[in-house]
Amino acid sequence: MIKIPARVLIVDDEKDFVEMFSLRLQSQGEKVLSAFNGIDALDVLEQNIVDVVILDIRMPGMDGIETLKRIKALYPIVEVIMLTGHGSAETAVEGMKLGAFDYLMKPADFGDISLKLEAARKRKDEHEERIRKAEARLLIRRSGDI
């Protein structure tokens, strides 16, 4: 079976982490984009198709929660995995209430990240398929065939 690469955006203010994590995901065959703050993340999303965002909660300027709110308002189908290195599980749960797919605590095991990434991408793909089917049914109804 051929694996279709996920289009992943990593958003974290720790540049070394982003670079290492990007290399690791790319070695797994994923297509990776990066941003080092929330504003840049929104710019990347505006210019690229992204399946999953891996988003740090604590960043200077626009934090992860505000970035998540904006992502979900503008790109509701994009899945977001919250990432925190500060033991802030409460904030991560808040993010899930706001639409994040899941969260991970730093340092996260790469195997766990890969599993959550694949599950998030699958959920996005399923959501897009339901939308396509609904649009097709709507077109059929509008054409008067039903």
UniProtKB/TrEMBL annotation:
SUPFAM superfamilies per UniProt: CheY-like (SSF52172)
Domain Response regulatory: 7-121
CC per GO annotation: cytosol; protein-DNA complex
GO molecular function: phosphorelay response regulator activity; transcription cis-regulatory region binding
Keyword Transcription appears in the UniProt entry: yes
Stored Gene3D superfamilies: 3.40.50.2300
Keywords, alphabetical: DNA-binding, Phosphoprotein, Transcription, Transcription regulation, Two-component regulatory system
Signal peptide: none
InterPro entries with a match to the protein in the record: CheY-like_superfamily, Sig_transdc_resp-reg_receiver, WalR-like
Listed GO biological process terms: regulation of DNA-templated transcription
Chain positions found as 4-aspartylphosphate: D56
Protein name: Response regulator receiver protein
Source organism of this protein record: Desulfamplus magnetovallimortis
